[in-house]
Amino acid sequence: MIKKMFDFEKLDDGWELVRYNYNADPRITRLEIPAKYKFHKVKSISPKAFNSASFLKSVVVPDSVTNIGAAAFEYCEQLEEITLPRGLKIIDYNMFAECASLRKIELPAKVAVIRMRAFARCASLEEIKLPEMLCVVYNMAFQDCAALKTVRFPDSEVTLLGNTFMNCRSLSAETAMYSLIGVNDLNKPFAVNTEFNWDLALREDVFKLAVEHNSFESISKTELFKQLIDRNLIDYMPLAEGLLNERILGELVDYSSERNKTEFTARLLNFKNGGNSAVEDIINAQFNL
To answer: Among positive and negative, which fits the CA dihedral 71, 76, 77, 80?
Structure first.
């Protein structure tokens, strides 16, 4: 007896696709989900319905579907492209997480929410355009998307909760800034929270853009300079000195000196003395070289 390709459950107004039964069959790489089953519309796809369908490369979801559950396509490791229904409003938790081959996806115009880890570890995803009706993107929605460079935001304001683009090393500086601000608006300062992503904020191109836009306005300047000192980012000092003030200088000089950061200490002392001495002279005088 041939196994059914899908299992369905009856809804009040149609059907829910609850399981794809050929997830380990290498013969099926392209799939078009039916819009109807037993004369009624397929309205929904259950959570994890296609989870680990490891040989699927292309999937078309019909416009009859208005809801796709969490992790529906998680671990579809060879999935390269998918057509989503026009009426979809939520990209749910882990929907495409671990889809390492996903290269392109067009989000429907009505999508308003992208939930946590929706695209986590989509290692081949390089670009995505966010729809005009999008309101919020949750924490780690694009976590570990190593190839993601371009995120095209709508003109409207989009709220980014937490580390939306955690460990996305290829991001443009502007998109990285948005993720640190918490909204797609470069005119707002970085959001203050206990999980502030210093690795991203101190990436060279991001740091330059942040100083230009005064993005560190709400961030502790003492903590900022301690981060620079600990990371040996001495080349950032010409830009960063504009953020120094007399109140924090003494503490920073002591902090730098205790960690044997000679050039940092000299630069901070030079700033404290009005910037009139050569850094080399301060080093010689302070450290008896």
So the answer is: negative
Pairwise CA distance, residues 17 & 43, whole Å: 8
Output the pTM of the full model. Answer: 0.88
One-letter amino acid at 33 equals I
Residue at 187: amino acid letter: N
Torsion-angle region of 87 (φ positive above 0: left; ψ -120 to 50: alpha; else: beta): alpha
* Placement of tokens 């949750």 in the chain: 138
Question: What distance in Å separates the CA atoms of residue 162 and residue 170, rounded to the nearest whole number?
Answer: 19
Q: How far is CA 277 from CA 225, 232, 282, in A?
A: 21, 22, 7
CA dist., res. 218 & res. 214, Å (int) = 9
146 touches 124 (CB < 8 A): no
Query: What percent of the chain has pLDDT above 70?
Result: 94
Q: Greater confidence, 256 or 162? A: 256
